[in-house]
Amino acid sequence: MDIGKNIAEIKQSLPDEVKLVAVSKNKLPEIIMQAYNAGHKIFGENKAQELIQKYEKLPKDIEWHFIGHLQTNKAKYLAPFVSMIHGIDSFKILKTVNKEAKKNDRIIPCLLQFHIAQESTKFGLSEEEAHEILDSEEYKKMKNISIVGVMGMATFTEDEMQVRNEFRFLKKIFDKLKKEYFPRKKGFREISMGMSDDYAIAVEEGSTIVRIGSKIFGAR
Questions:
Q1: How far is CA 164 from the centre of its chain?
Q2: Nearest to 175 by CA among 136, 205, 132, 144
Q3: In angstroms, rounded to a whole number, what is the distance separating the alpha carbons of residues 84 and 211?
Q4: Where are the beta strands (DSSP E) in the chain?
Q5: Smallest Cα–Cα separation from 202: which of 82, 117, 131?
Q6: Which residues are CB-neighbours of 185 under 8 A, at least 6 positions away?
Q7: Of 113, 145, 180, 192, which is least surrounded by CB within 10 A?
Q8: Tally of CB atoms within 10 A around 180
Q9: How far apart are the C-alpha atoms of 86 and 67, rounded to whole Å?
């Protein structure tokens, strides 16, 4: 398994403006170091405990993205160092991240996660819930989070058209939010969608961040 070669091939296939997050969940630090030594420094984890342990062991110039469902009681452990939180799927977690970021004198970039798949097991906001958050006075007073875009996961299916339509739907949500809430915010530009099996479709539909694990590190 040539991890460096896999990363190089994926990066070559991506437009320059699309960021690759190497999903390193369940991978040992020495495996992650193979990617790091090949020049890749952006990694994604979906379990807070595992991320904290890796953060302590690995080089400090790594950009860590939290891509899973974040429990409120774990936010305080990530707040000192996390580069971006992809999965803001409730107002409660956004409030918690803001509070913990403030304690660390940081502004944490966050993505609103939307439920775009047909599988009920996936987390995510509805459009109505997102509007409720963004219209609220409480949100407007938050100084320690910065909403920089949206995130979503397509249905795990062989049906490419369904996947494409779900990604299109997320892009539409992004465009609406941009127009209504962030028209002058240059930083609101991220659409995190696409994983090992469907990232090519995601990029065609406007993704700016792809989250790829098995195509880099091999299947679990």
A1: 19
A2: 205
A3: 13
A4: 19-23, 42-45, 63-66, 84-88, 108-114, 145-152, 190-192, 209-212
A5: 117
A6: none
A7: 180
A8: 11
A9: 5
Indicate if the alpha-carbon torsion angle 203, 208, 210, 216 is positive or negative: positive
DSSP 219: -
pTM exceeding the 0.85 threshold for the entire prediction: yes
Half-sphere exposure of 47 (CA within 13 A, CB side): 8
> Residues 35-69: pLDDT tens digits?
999 999 999 999 999 999 999 999 999 999 999 99
- Taking CA atoms, 105 is separated from 4, 98, 100, 209, in Å, by 35, 10, 9, 26
Tokens of 53: 């342990």
Which pLDDT tens digit goes with each residue over 22-39?
999 999 999 999 999 999
Instruction: Answer yes or no: are the C-beta atoms of 186 and 147 closer than 8 Å.
Output: no
Q: What SS3 state is found at 95?
A: helix
3-class DSSP assignment, residue 122: coil
Residues β-bridged to residue 113: 151
